[in-house]
Amino acid sequence: MSYRDTWAVCTKCGKKFIFRVEEQRQLALEGKEIVPPALCPDCRPARPSARRPQRPQRRAESRLDLAALGPGPYEGVIKWYDDEKGYGFIIHPGGHEIFFHRTGIAPGESPDFPDGTPVTYCLEQTEKGPQAVDVERMVA
Ligand SMILES: [Zn+2]
Q: What domains does the chain contain, in order, with CATH numbers?
């Protein structure tokens, strides 16, 4: 089968562009129908290979991870809790620190959590990020 450069018209900007033999061959190679693309090269989204390699953004990623977490329940350990301040942090599996407020302590639990206390808790997504609620000492 032979191919020829043909003219095509962009459905977005209306510009004429060349539907090249190479592109036609590529479509044939991929077993696709050999039709000109709807968009001219200028209107086409950049190819994935043209994307710049992305640097890992640790902070953004970890925030993202936490925001994607479901309500739980989860198991973690108390990093610290200060009853005078009325809040503390739980170390979530994977090392993230989850804030919790005194009001997030499960009913009936005494607000006394030495560092390293294993706890179960649920997550609530708030404007400030995830927050642990229903914080309860794990029964050994
Ligand atoms: Zn166009």
A: 6-50 (no CATH), 58-137 (2.40.50.140)
